[in-house]
Amino acid sequence: MTPEALIDIFREALAVIVTIVSMIIVPGLIVGLIVAVFQAATSINEQTLSFLPRLLTTLLGLMLMGHLLVQTMMEFFMQMVNMIPQVIG
């Protein structure tokens, strides 16, 4: 196994991780920013007001994008399994 092959595998793994995490986190960050601007404009300092919309957005994102996340992970896993003979031999 060459160092270049290991770096390619590591790069692909990081790309999959970033893709999966961004699909879950980015919608919550956007909703959190909108709620924070609303709280700053109205001077409402309630902690649960910012937590609940972010939680619901994250759960909704997982429900809607769950199949795509699992499909992405399965494709990466199958690619890694298919590369075993090339890496070993």
Mean pLDDT: 91
State the helical fraction.
over 70%
Structural class from helices and strands?
A: mainly alpha
As for the number of domains, it is 1
Low-confidence stretches: none
Rg estimate, integer Å: 19 Å
The protein's oligomeric status is single chain
By DSSP, the count of extended strands is 0
Shape, please?
A: elongated
Tally the helices. 3
| Major sheet details | none
Strand content: under 5%
End-to-end Cα distance, whole Å, is: 8 Å
Series of H and E elements: HHH
Organism: Shewanella piezotolerans (strain WP3 / JCM 13877)
Protein name: Flagellar biosynthetic protein FliQ
Membrane topology: Multi-pass membrane protein
Pfam families: Bac_export_3
Annotation keywords:
single chain, 89 residues, mainly alpha, 91% helix, 0% strand, elongated, Bac_export_3, Flagellar biosynthetic protein FliQ, cilium, FliQ, flagellum
Written overview of the protein:
With 89 residues, the protein is an all-alpha fold. It has one domain (3-83). The protein has three helices and no strands. It has helices at 3-42, 47-82, 84-88. Helix 1 (3-42) runs antiparallel to helix 2 (47-82). The longest helix has 40 residues, at 3-42. The radius of gyration is 19 Å and the shape is elongated. The model has no long low-confidence stretch (mean pLDDT 91).
